[in-house]
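If you are new to this repository, start here. Below is one unmodified record pulled from the training split, so you can see the exact layout before writing a loader.
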Amino acid sequence: MEMHQIRYFLAVSKELNFTRAAEFCNVAQPSLTRAIKLLEEELGGPLFHRERANTHLSELGRTVQPYLEEVYAKTQEAKRQALDFGKLRKTPLKLGVMCTIQPDELLDLVSGLQARHPGIELEIIDASAADLEDRLLNGHLEVAIYCIPGKDPDERLHYIPLFREQFMIVVSTDHPLASRNAICPRDLTGGRYLNRISCEFYGYAGAIWRENGFEGCEMVYRSERDDWILAMIAAGLGFGFMPQSCAKHPMVAARPMVDPEFWREVNLVTVRGRPHSPAVGALVKEAMRARWLGQPAIAIGAERERAAAEPVLAAAE
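And here is the target side for that same chain:
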């Protein structure tokens, strides 16, 4: 059974005249008649009783008519939905975002997407970096923004660097370390630590601290929520370790961690070789337009440097 056969059948059902039905379908009458005959052979009986002035549906025709109408209507709706999807009208898009990225950092991306692609219905999935990576590889997400420091890039994934920022030690404004310009691991020895469970460096930074003079502290609180950690820091209950953009509270002071420094490079990540919807393409373009921490995406800067270097290399050759 082919869709044009269903369309011809429904036209004849409406017109009750093969000639008018053929005109309505913009097809030669012999072609329409032949298609109806093939459909009748497939369904096992005549669909119409053909009389000179009185063509009408057979019992079989009346039986199958509502089903074929439903099939045709759903097919047309599927085509309409596909067209809307291709033209980014009412197109859903799930974007995974690492939970330690502040909403402020996404405003430029989201506003640009809304302004130039208003048909995209964006849903932001907030989760840890490891969870987002699993969802990408399992096909539950098409695109995500995250980073996993200390882990080699997965060859199955494609990374577009967006921004880079330093991790800070965060203390209350009246804490003795607030007067420092920078803080070393050994400065934290004996302190009270407020642990961000979703931190990108969770389970990784501690070993590096110990290699650089840190001799231990008391963990007094753990939370997945940065706002709770910041409230505890402001109350003088301990220190935190977080990206500079997260340390937003009037009663805390953020100082760079040095010797060693810790940085996160956040990427827009997709799966290599996987076909993506037009909405993902639009998102990537807007990510390249957006400013991240007040700067263009790292990928844009790298591309400009490469383009600028090409004439110099060519001249040298």
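Two things worth knowing about this chain: DSSP finds ten helices and 13 strands in the chain. Residues 59-86 form the longest helix (28 residues).
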